[in-house]
Every structure is written in C-alpha cells, then in structure tokens.
C-alpha cells in the first residue's frame, strides 16, 4: 500500500469502515510513513471536533404513542373482551344447563316407570295416571309424581346455586378489571408527572443554552473590534 | 420473570421491532425512546427549526409504526426510520416551497445579533490560544455550511450517528459509491478547517 492508497484507507479507518485486512495493511504502512501518521492524527482530530461541535440537544418533548391500535389491544380491548365474555359465558352455561335439564326430564319420565317398577311402589295403572294427571291434582300423589317434583325442585336449587356461583365469579372478574383499570390510571398519571419533570428539565436546558449563546456571541463580538463599528 | 425477582436483561431493537409489529405499542414506545433524540437532532440539522424537527420526528415514528409490516428485516429499523424522516423532511420543504435554512446550525431565529456573526467571513479565532466550546460549534457550523447539502447529510450520518456506508446509501436512497465519494470529499474539506492549527487549538485547550 502506497501513500495514495493509504489516504483513502485512513478515512475509512477513522470512520470505522476499515475491515481487519485493511487495518493490517494500514498499520504496516503507517509503521514506516510519518506523513501518513500525521494525516491520521489530523483525520481523528477532525472527527472528534465534528462530534464535539455538533452536540446533541435534548428534545423539547418526548414522543410516545397511544394510538387506535393501542386501544384495540390495550385497555379498552381488554375490558371489552372480558366484560362481554362474562354474559356470553353465562348464556352458554345456561343454555347447556337447559338442554341437560330437558334431556334429564325426558329421561326421568321414561325412567320413572322403571324406577317405580324396580321398587314396586306404583302399579302399571298408576303409571298411566301419572302420565295423564296434571301437576295440580289434589289426589294423594303417588310416589312417582312426588319424585318428579322433588327432582324439579332439586334441579331448580342446583340452577340457582350455579347462577349464584356464576354471578360471584363475574363480580370477582369485574372487581379485578376495575382494580387493573385503577393501576393503569395511576401508571398514566405517573408517566404524566414524569413528562412534566422532563419538560421542566428541557426548559432549563434551553434557558441555559440561550444564556450561553448570548455570552459566546458577546465574546466573539468583543474579539472583532474592527468590525464592531460596521454593525448597526 | 419469575416470582418477585426482577431480572436485568438487555432488549435489542430487533425484539422491540418484532413486538411493535405484533401490535405492542409499549414495545414501540421503548423503541421510540431509544431513537427519538438521535432522530430529532438529525432533523434539527436538516431543518434548523426545533418545531419542525419535533413534528417531523413524530410524523416519522408514526409512519414507521404504521408501515412496520413492510420492514423486511427488523435489524434494518434505524436506517429505515432515518430514511422515512429524511424523505419527510425533504418533501416538507418541497411543499413549503422553502429551502432548509442553514441546516448545519440550529440557532433560534430571534437572536438578532446571531445573523451577522453567522454569515460573516472566516470565523475569527483571535490571537488567544483558547477556543471555547461555543466557538467550536460556530466553527463546525461554518465548516459544514461550506459543504454541499448532500455531502453534509452523508457526513453527519456517518460521523455523528455512525451509520455504515451501506446504511447511509439506504437512507439517502443512492448507490454506495455515491455515498463514499460524498463522504470522502466532505471529510477532506472538513479536515482542512478542523484538522489544522485551529483544530489543534480547540482540541488541546483543556
């Protein structure tokens, strides 16, 4: 590598673009070339001053998003999916229960005969009465009919119990959702407070910047006695 | 995270980009907080106006979020973001019908005394051997002003933000060879101002 080739390679080196192979070649050349070593010092200085002379400013305000997308997947979405999920879940449970009930009832009627037969409580004639008799008959009720009523009562109780359990569960979920909402609100407030502090800090930075600028400009102006008169 | 233990773990841009692409806005906000200052300062160099820079930065982040699905490789997020911002800034100036004002510096317009000093002849460094940080800023601003806008953008993206040549080519939408020639020429010119005695004075004054 001669000096001409090295010149460009040195820029690559200073700008972190030199590969390891290129580095080795540069080092080999630098070892015996004072001019290129001086050039490298110059280039490093240039980059250093460029970075120093272009300081990064604080932002007047930070950027954060709470977009429609956020609402969809975030708070509203969460609440929506849960609160609507509860009634739907209850409805499905009730529907299943009702179906089960209807099935159970039908089987009960069918199985009633067998049950009675099995225990010998009701003769075949009573079974016929059972089928034809309305629920409100005042005739002393045979065992089969009583059992049916009892079964209905039991089922009603079971349904009531199940509904209560469902209600308790949905109340608990609602409670949880509300407390989460509270937490999120608190988080939002905290973030807001943070932004306020940040805002104040940047205000201070700008104030300092402005006074620093004024001082420096006065300084520069004071070093220009000849030009001073020309300015309005 | 298990139990109450908080684990320290570095999260890469790549992971955040993937989270954001899946609709995780908090993930995207983390990504924004990593890049906003850099992007804002780059836009400040381009526009020379803090309000414009902030507006454009917000716009760029929003546009990037809405188009995240089009970003093929998550690793390319930075240059992709800068490209969006660069294009937004350029099209803003086209639509405003104004050129980016002295985009190498970012002084508030209201300082009436600033203008004559900034546009005068070669910056006088005086006989003093000291160069104040602000004098250096003025010097760098002056030196950058003498480059073409294309050279300046490429040099800033390289020297300040550390993008690779190939990444700068993506941001500025031009061939790598063009980027290289802009940077070599621009850096050569800057070296003449900053690399000489003046630079040495600034560097060793402390």
Summarize the structure in words.
- The complex is a heterodimer of chains A (232) and B (206).
- With 232 residues, chain A is mostly helical.
- Chain A folds into two domains: 3-52, no CATH class; 82-199, no CATH class.
- Chain A has eight helices and no strands.
- Chain A has helices at 3-14, 20-31, 34-53, 68-73, 75-119, 124-132, 143-222, 225-228.
- Chain A is elongated.
- The two termini of chain A are 57 Å apart.
- By secondary structure, chain B is mostly helical.
- Chain B has two domains: 1-98, RNA polymerase sigma factor, region 2, helix turn helix motif (Rna Polymerase Sigma Factor, Chain: A); 112-206, Arc Repressor Mutant, subunit A, CATH 1.10.10.
- Chain B is built from ten helices and no strands.
- Chain B has helices spanning 13-21, 25-47, 50-66, 77-96, 114-119, 133-145, 149-159, 165-172, 176-194, 197-204.
- Chain B is globular and about 55 Å long.
- Residues 100-129 of chain B have low confidence and may be disordered.
- Chains A and B meet through helix 3, helix 4 and helix 7 of A and helix 2, helix 3, helix 5, helix 6 and helix 7 of B.
């Amino acid at each position: 590598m001669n000096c001409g080739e090295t010149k460009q390679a040195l820029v690559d080196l200073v700008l972190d673009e030199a590969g390891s192979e290129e580095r080795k070649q540069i080092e080999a050349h630098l070892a015996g070339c004072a001019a290129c070593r001086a050039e490298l010092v110059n280039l490093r200085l240039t980059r250093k001053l460029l970075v120093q002379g272009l300081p990064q400013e604080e932002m007047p305000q930070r950027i954060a998003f709470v977009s429609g997308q956020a609402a969809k997947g975030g708070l509203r979405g969460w609440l929506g999916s849960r609160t609507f999920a509860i009634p739907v879940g209850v409805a499905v449970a009730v529907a299943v229960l009702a179906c089960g009930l209807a099935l159970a009832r039908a089987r009960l009627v069918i199985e009633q005969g067998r049950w009675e037969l099995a225990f010998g409580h009701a003769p075949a004639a009573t079974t016929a009465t059972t089928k034809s008799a309305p629920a409100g008959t005042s005739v002393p009720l045979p065992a089969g009919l009583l059992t049916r009523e009892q079964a209905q009562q039991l089922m009603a109780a079971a349904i009531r119990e199940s509904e209560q359990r469902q209600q308790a569960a949905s109340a608990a979920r609602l409670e949880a959702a509300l407390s989460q909402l509270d937490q999120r609100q608190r988080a939002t407030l905290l973030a807001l407070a943070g932004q306020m502090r940040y805002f104040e800090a940047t205000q201070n930075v700008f104030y300092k910047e402005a006074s620093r600028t004024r001082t420096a400009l006065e300084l520069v102006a004071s070093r220009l006695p000849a030009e001073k008169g020309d300015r309005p | 995270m298990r139990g109450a233990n908080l684990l320290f773990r570095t999260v890469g841009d790549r992971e955040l980009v993937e989270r954001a692409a899946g609709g995780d806005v908090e993930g995207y906000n983390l990504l924004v907080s990593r890049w906003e200052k850099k992007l804002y300062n780059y836009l400040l160099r381009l526009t020379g106006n803090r309000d414009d820079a902030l507006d454009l930065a917000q716009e760029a982040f929003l546009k990037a979020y809405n188009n995240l699905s089009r970003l093929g490789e998550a690793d390319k997020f930075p240059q992709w973001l800068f490209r969006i911002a660069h294009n937004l800034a350029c099209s803003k100036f086209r639509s405003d019908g104004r050129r980016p004002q002295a985009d190498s510096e970012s002084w508030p317009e209201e300082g009436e005394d600033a203008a004559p000093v900034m546009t005068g002849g070669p910056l006088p460094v005086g006989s003093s051997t000291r160069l104040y940080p602000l004098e250096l800023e003025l010097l760098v601003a002056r030196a950058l002003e003498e480059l073409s806008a294309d050279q300046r953008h490429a040099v800033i993206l390289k020297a300040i933000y550390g993008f690779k040549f190939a990444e700068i080519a993506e941001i500025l939408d031009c061939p790598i060879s063009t980027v290289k020639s802009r940077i070599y020429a621009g850096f050569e010119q800057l070296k003449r101002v900053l690399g000489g005695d003046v630079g040495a004075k600034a560097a060793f004054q402390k």
